């Protein structure tokens, strides 16, 4: 999921993916989705921090 997507939006999207998988493979299909935070240079960063990095790198 895009790093700037809210947790709510990511959860909604993951729920839709689960629903489609169950429609295709059956209601009792076991699905495990895991959402990871955004990583930059191996470290987790928040979207707010990412915006600060992009402003710094562009000189804005």
Automatic annotation (TrEMBL):
It comes from the Bacteria. Pfam families: ZT_dimer. SUPFAM superfamilies: Cation efflux protein cytoplasmic domain-like (SSF160240). Residues 1-37 form the Cation efflux protein cytoplasmic domain. This is Cation efflux protein cytoplasmic domain-containing protein. It comes from Hoylesella buccalis DNF00853.
